[in-house]
Amino acid sequence: MTKKLFAFIILLLLCLRTFAQHSDENARIQRLKIYQDSLKELGKTMINNENDLERKNANYQFIKTLVGALKIPNSFLFPFDSVKTISIINSPDNRFRILTWHIENQDGSYRFYGTVQLNTGGQLKMYPLEDYSPLLQHPEDSVTDNHKWFGAQYYKIIPVYGAKTYYVLLGWKGNTIKSTKKVIDVISFPDGKPQFGMPIFDGNGKARKRVVFEYTRQASMLLNYVPEQNLIVFDHLSPPDPKLKDHPESFGPDLSYDGYKLKNGKWVYVEELDMRNIPENGNSQSDKDYVDPKKQALKDRNQVKTH
């Protein structure tokens, strides 16, 4: 065999291998897109259907379909960005992502679902999140695992790097027909497994492992991260009447602002923030900014009608 013929055969084999790899990748993406289409339709049903049983059945199917999709190798790289009924956020270092969503119960309360997917570069490694909220008597004092999760739908991950790296989570929690909750939580990975809560919030009367806000469902609350100042800023909530100080379902913003400032790896409570010193380009999130899946589905339908 001549050298030229040998080189040609090697080149041909490399081309065939590259072609096969591209074909496999295209097939993988196509499978994920099929799963995505199913998730998109199931998501609309589990959010918009007026029948409580139909919503919950759609949610169970959604979970099974999502697990099937995530089992496809390298699914971590697929954004599922057309599935508007769930929140999918990646940690800034791309170490993991969290997928969370909620189902509204017939009585106006909520149950939350989700999973933490690690970036393994291949095979699936995930930790399903089991909402333990109704049984968690003192959530601000609790450190839990994924089986006793204080359920929420997250919209922001704030990494804090150090000897023990952790990530602050900002989330919307809903609550009842009378009140809404938001939460500042923490996720860390001791022994490689997710753990929620950490004693890093100091001040405002106590040390907390997570921070929970409750306020009237008729109000809108700002919960904002300002990276330039390492500051989490939020509306100060107060009752409309001092007599209602023990009824957080009546609370609302009083046009003042407090926050937590990162100092030496912990978040220290700061009162009476001057919002004139807060950059407007911070990653804000108030209730009015929160993407209500029902409103999103209605918007999608209206867009279809106008095209």
UniProtKB/TrEMBL annotation:
Annotated signal sequence range: 1-20
Entry keyword set: Signal
Regions of compositional bias (Basic and acidic residues) in chain numbering: 286-307
Signal is among the record's keywords: yes
Stretch list, region Disordered: 278-307
UniProt entry tagged with the keyword Signal: yes
Designated name of the protein: Uncharacterized protein
